[in-house]
Amino acid sequence: MKYIGSSRQPTALYCIALTEICRRIAFGAIAYLFFLYIADFQYFTEHASGQIGTVFLSITIFLPILGGFIVERIQYRLSVIWGVLLNAIGCFLILTSSLPFLFIALVLVAFGNALFQPGSYALLGTFYQQKPHLRDAGFSIYYALISLGPLFAFWILNSLADLKNLHAAFAIAGSIGLIGLIPLGIALKQYNRLKLQAAENAFSPLHKQEKDRIWVAVILILFSIIFWIAQDLSHTALNPLLVEYSPTIAKILPFDMQLFSIQSLYFILIALVLAKIYLFSYKKRSYSNAILKISLAFFILSICFAMLTLDSFELNFGAFVTSSVFTVYFFVVLAELLLAPIGLSLITRLSPRRYTAVLIGIWITCFNAAFYLKNLAFLFIPSFISPHMLFETVAILLIIIGLLIFALSKKLNRMCHFELF
User: Fold this and answer.
1) Model confidence over 262-282: pLDDT tens digits?
2) What Å distances lie between residue 89 and 18, 81, 146, 194, 299, CA to CA?
3) Which domains, ranges and CATH numbers included, belong to the chain?
4) Cβ-count burial of 207 within 10 angstroms (0-12 exposed, 13-18 middle, 19+ buried)?
5) Residues 6 or more apart from 98 whose CB is under 8 A from it?
6) What is the pTM of this model?
């Protein structure tokens, strides 16, 4: 099936991305500064503040699933609007310095995040109903652009925190979050003009094709859990590289050497290249479908661990390593861009309308939970396992899963009941 039309991405893509960047700055005020704030004003001891932070982050991890259910019942438009508003209101409530309002702020921000994340991806997916050949490229660009949110949040909020002006930090973060409603309004106007397929009855039974597509989404979500655990492990191993290489990198990059600084730079550059490749391959009718891209993501992440294996005799989680930090991060980011946006893109196309946001919420939860699952896995690793053995095992496991997905690709393609891009 050939789709003929403009190769330009919808303007709504950039509008929703800008809204998400603004919202992430507001969310970052809570994630980065809130617990510093309550400790600084001696509401709680440092230990108690840490416990509150752990509970907040744990709730935030799993709330997107509940958020997905809510999104399907209040529509995508309302979910993203309320997501932005709740994050901003949470920042402003902190300015009251009232302890009850501080806890209310945490709840509002957690629910705002849970509503916006699945709602925004589901909303973005609607703009590609008539342009499925642009979907993977569009989601890749969106995923890369929103990675700027944590980076901007770090720049802005860290500067204000250094000035010991935490109230100003929350006020500015909340205001920036509200500014995100402007581009969101532009996107929603375009959404209202779309000729969308009618939504299904939430209680109508699923037919066989819908069940097959849901199974494809569930299978890929289960595979993604292992990917996210491995990727988080790669970050754990690469953090010492930042310490070792920061004097050299600081001469090249004009900003503080942080993990997400490198990631954001790579996300933008690689996503733009991938988008061009996807469009070019489509025009030449030589494209690989989404499931094969996900399979490739596992192979590429295994390259990262293979490189760490070669250096792990000297690495030992902190010593000097010989491989370039830029090369290792390149493979980590490339693998993520072949899995995360492609998986989200595929879910928005596969899912029955009434389950799209729920499945997106499950995908996001799996991503969020990777850090805790990695730490849990470490409890079962024998003490005699060296970094070399660990990296080697993970690399082999990733290759096996990549081969398994590749072997299942034809079966999964048939279960999709339409042509994948």
Assistant:
1) 778 889 999 999 999 988 887
2) 19, 12, 21, 31, 43
3) 11-197 (1.20.1250.20), 207-421 (1.20.1250.20)
4) exposed
5) none
6) 0.88
